[in-house]
Amino acid sequence: MSLRNLRKEAILLIDKLLQERKIDGINYTLVEPPNTAFGELTSNIAFQLAQQFRSSPYLVAKDLVDSLLIQLSNQRSQESLLNTIDAHPSGHINFRADWNVYPIAVIGEILDDSYGKFDFGKGKRVIIEHTSVNPNKALHVGHLRNMIIGDVLFRILTAVNYDTSVFYYVDDSGLQVADIVVGFMNAGFPIDPPDHTTKFDQYCGNEVYVKINDLYIKNPDLQQKRKSVLKSIEKGNSELSRFAKDISLRVLKDQLKTCWSLKVRYDLLNFESDIVASKMWEKMFELLKNKGRAAYETEGKNKDCWVIRGSDGDDDKVLIRSDGTLTYVAKDMPYAAWKLGLFPDPFLYCAFSEQWDTSILWAATLDTSVGSHAKRQFGGAEIVINLIDSRQSRLQTIISSTLSAVAKFEKERYMHLSYEPVTLSSRTAKSLGIDIGNTSAHMSGRKGIYVGADQIMEILYKKAKEEINSRHPNMTDSELSGISESLGRAAVRYNMIKQDLERPIVFDLEESLSLDGDSGPYLQYAFARSQRLLEKGELMHRTKSLANLLHEKESNLIRELSKMDLIIEQCSSQMNPKLMARYAHRLAVAFNLYYEQVPILKEANESLVSARLLLVKAFNIVMRLALNYLGIDPLNRM
To answer: Tens digit of pLDDT for each residue in 272-310?
Structure first.
């Protein structure tokens, strides 16, 4: 909180001066300067006032600083973090911390037992829906970005006291499931993988789904089978629909194993077949018709379909196809309304599985023989966040704007958090036997550029194991495996979270595992270094003094440590988990430079050794928090 408190001091001084001079309506900024030589904070207020005063920004800044320094002198107390204020020739006003006080304040608050308890969410209910891979295939590398962004966002929102639930939507009544059912029922594919070492989700996606789509071209009769299967699935209560449900569940359980291997967890599974059977669509359809939002087409390309009108004919979106089946948007709209609390809860709930963290994953159901009324609320959130790639932006906009129009709620309550896809680097593609030349390439089953998430994780674990074994040949197999898995998880999680959401990721296996670059293992390496220092220091030095910490690398580390609460507040308010990844990297860089250039245990001055160990302890605490938010294991040894 120290940087926040320093900022509060500066704002109080500025606002008091403006009030004394009867100056209103000035929207100045107070931010970190690009260079620490300019202090801890800098303001543009002189630029805001220069035109009004018909003077240069520097002269205005100098005049303001003279008055601010008088105020600072009159108000200075023992708790003050601010030392001095100066006017830069450019016109910026710089605020500098008192470095006899500031390190003690920063380290002291971090070492306090209450540190890390943030309450920016005030208990507000949030639903995050992510992953939601169709239950006809295994997860591929592109799905990992969705899943990891969603999980990190959940961890951050939960940490700042949002009442956060994570949903996984299972599209068990869509065309993709119908394709798998046709493959098993009508095309002769065996129900179990011929190779018993192959996971069922991989078999369905890589074998059955791919080949049945080829067979549709050769055998048009199979396409008619698909239509009848889809209708049967949507109606439910038939042997065929129960078979489809069993297949979907079997695929889903394998998908969840992949998610859990990356320490991603969920609160609730929602099945599309139950959403359709809940009759919420019928209520939504009547509401749309009564509000004039749904229209029946009697001619044109959408003849005999129900549509939502767009701004022109090309923007119309089909709700009900001419054959009576529902489109994605028709199924998702009542579901979105339930998540927002616009419809009463039609579901019962049953325990589906225990997860890697021992929490229970619940499933919504309409089956009274297995479900019961929930002991907690699932629907009716104040904010709903749907994590779906940018290709679904138009559909999400239609849902949000339509619900807002018919139910009169703020659009901000229903958020589409979009992201760009993952591509493979040419180096990684080549190592996997995929030839894409010297460029990167998107996932594409049609082009054969498709890399499963399980495959990538297995390669990362193997590479990490080889690297660790070369450094620590005497490590036990159990410890070697555990650390290898942690490094692999860190590599892929950090790689998927560190970029802007609107930028595609070029995934590279070698780069993601680097201990020296911008990678997850690099963060773990910094933490492990601090842990080792603390273990050695505990044996050698037991005093707890805070002598002056004035080395440049110490100051840089202290500045970074003072920002944690501001960073996590920005992450939660902007729904931008990338900010935490960038902060964790800056923190690791600052610590590694400190570790490499400043003597800690070898310092001759005992009081300074103690102070530096306390600074290491503060880093250890903050870095552990940052790693936990990112879902990266804080390793004690590497």
So the answer is: 999 988 999 999 999 999 998 899 999 999 999 999 876
Sign (positive or negative) of CA dihedral 97, 628, 534, 467: negative
Question: What is the distance between the alpha carbons of residues 294 and 308, in angstroms, rounded to a whole number?
Answer: 5
Q: Which two tokens stand for residue 444?
A: 């594409």
Instruction: Look at the domain 2-98 and name its fold.
Output: Gyrase A; domain 2 (3.30.1360)
Sequence letter at residue 91: G
- The 3-state secondary structure of 560-622 reads HHCCHHHHHHHHHHHCCCHHHHHHHHHHHHHHHHHHHHCCCCCCCCHHHHHHHHHHHHHHHHH
Residues 60, 49: contact at Cβ < 8 Å?
Answer: yes
Two structure tokens written together for 541: 């030095």
| Rounded distance between C-alpha atoms, residue 297 and residue 63, angstroms | 71
How far is residue 628's CA from residue 633's CA, in Å, rounded to a whole number? Answer: 7
Q: Tokens 């580390």 sit at which residue?
A: 557
Nearest 5°: phi and psi at 515?
A: -90, -5
Residue type, position 145, single letter: R
Residue 448: strand, helix, or coil = coil
Give the span between the Cα atoms of 557 and 300, in whole angstroms.
Answer: 66
pTM for the model: 0.92
Phi first, then psi: give them for residue 599, nearest 5 degrees. -70, 130
Give whole-number Cα distances, 327 to 272, 281, 318, 342, in Å. 12, 11, 7, 21
Beta-ladder partners of 128: 166, 385
SS3 annotation, 283-304: HHHHHHHHCCCEEECCCCCCCC
Strands 82-87 and 93-97: what pairing? antiparallel
Question: Measured between alpha carbons, how far is 575 from 157 in angstroms, rounded to an integer?
Answer: 9
| Helix (H) or strand (E) segment spanning residue 354 | strand 348-354
| Beta carbons of 392 and 297 less than 8 angstroms apart | no
* Residue 523, H or E segment: helix 520-540
The domains of the chain are located at: 2-98, 424-512, 520-630
* Crossing angle for the helix pair 520-540 and 578-597, to the nearest 10 degrees: 40
Matching residue, tokens 């002769």: 188
| Whole-angstrom distance, CA of residue 166 vs CA of residue 159 | 14
Residue written as token pair 């006032």:
49
Contacts of 99 (CB under 8 A, 6+ apart): 83, 548, 550, 555
Tell me which residue of 384, 475, 340 sits closest to 128, measured CA to CA: 384
Q: What are phi and psi of 300, to 5 degrees?
A: 85, -170
Whole-angstrom CA distances from 459 to 202, 300, 442 are 17, 52, 19
Mean pLDDT in each 10-residue stretch from start to end of the chain (638 residues)?
A: 92 95 93 94 96 93 96 82 96 95 94 93 97 94 94 98 97 91 94 92 93 89 88 84 94 98 98 92 93 91 88 73 87 94 94 97 96 90 94 88 84 90 80 67 53 90 89 88 95 94 84 81 96 85 70 96 97 96 98 96 89 95 98 93
Among the four given CATH numbers 1.10.520.10, 1.10.10.10, 3.40.50.1100, 1.10.730.10, the one describing domain 520-630: 1.10.730.10
Tokens, residue 214: 């080829």
The whole-angstrom separation of Cα 595 and Cα 557 is 10
Closest CA to 152 of 265, 253, 257: 265
In whole angstroms, give the CA distance from residue 256 to residue 264: 9
Helix (H, G, I), strand (E, B) or coil at 199: coil
d(CA 609, CA 543): 9
